[in-house]
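Dear Dr. V.,

Thank you for agreeing to look over these. As mentioned in my earlier message, I'm a first-year student in the group and I'm still getting used to reading structure tokens, so any feedback on how I've presented them would be very welcome. I ran two proteins. I've put each sequence directly above its structure. The first is here:
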Amino acid sequence: MSHQKVKVPLDTEPVNKLQYISERTSKNGKSKIAAQWYGFCKKFKRKVPLDKAYVVKEFLADLLKEVKRIALEGEKYFIGIPPGNAKSWSEFSSDLVKGPEMHYKQGKENTCMVYSCASALHYLGAIQTGSELYRKTNQIIKRKDSFEHFFVTAKEVDKQLQFCKLQIRNGTY
């Protein structure tokens, strides 16, 4: 895609915000400039042009409608992407090995962090711990510091749970 000057962010450059610039006429009025999607990566503080196919594949239609609506009103700012915005897929990619069945299934809520960990604990046999963590979902996700609060709550639920940061050296853990 480099010859089209369109980039798709890598996992190391997550898109945290979206912007849509609708089709417009050049300053001299002689040519049209095509509509363009942009992503913003907070970590690297940079704006990246995104391919329309990538945007449609990766983000929920409702979010894209909202970003377009705001752009059509003349606003030119980036719209934050809600964390955990789930997009359902009808089937797994052929190269992806399917894991165990999720015990706690996410609906439209932003519960993926808690539900996936509670399901993993359930699968591993820590059914009571997974259930207690699942019941405390709202206490965790309603906070600004939900990620940190998740770990605190998990340790309260089961004192045997331990978390550690992985050190990355030369691209390996």
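The second protein is here, in the same arrangement:
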Amino acid sequence: MLYRQIGDGAGRVIRASMAKTKPTKSAAKLKAKTAKAKPATKKPTAKSATAKSATANKAVPTKAKTFSYFASDGSLNISADKPAQGTEAQILDAIQDLRAVRGNFLGIIVPSGTLQFYCDGDEWLIDVPVPAKGGSLQRTIAVDSMETTRMEYAESALAGTPVIELPKLKFKKF
């Protein structure tokens, strides 16, 4: 039997059968009755149209997706062993506030892996650990051009781009 999946508007998926069925005699009689007695069509009023559109446009509250992160920059001290939970907006704010001081770092744990930013004084290291290959994907960027780059990388990773597919990263052995 063939099935199709349809959403119920609340994020759940419902399976509906696509099998064709023969109409029953009672269904045929009902169809004949409704064809004979056509009710007068009611014109929608401005009030009913507004009420319907207001109902249709009601915002459905959604829970913000959270991610784990760790950081150290003088004001933040979150261990990688006990990462904090934060929304995308909170993590992007923390990345934007990350100062270019030697030793400062921030890491984001997303479903596809970990994305880390580490300041080495004059440069930032973008690092994606790949322990299965005994190394990590890396990119080094000058401090003055890092602001835009780290935001782009973080936004991509938080949006679901696999961290190993982020651009311009080169593999380095541990």
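From my reading of the second output: The chain has a mean pLDDT of 76. Residues 3 and 17 are 5 Å apart (CA to CA). Does that match how you would interpret it?

Kind regards,
E.
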